Amino acid sequence: MPTSIEAWWPRLSQETRDWLVAHNGDEVTPTVMAEINRAGGLVSTDAWGAGHDTPQGAYLPDDVVDWIEAVANGEVPPR
User: Superkingdom, according to UniProt (predicted)?
Assistant: First the structure.
């Protein structure tokens, strides 16, 4: 079972965290997906479930996208 983003975010490289902030909500690259999975996170390959019209690519769940957006804006992320 995947852990919460609060647990796996610090396990990511700074480069990956920067990429996730810059590309928040975008399709996740295979390299970033592999690092998130190694850190204990989960990337959905169900694009429809992530709010997209076609089942292509890998996307972070909406709650993770919201969490990253809050961090990027210097806000306290939702729990």
Answer: Bacteria
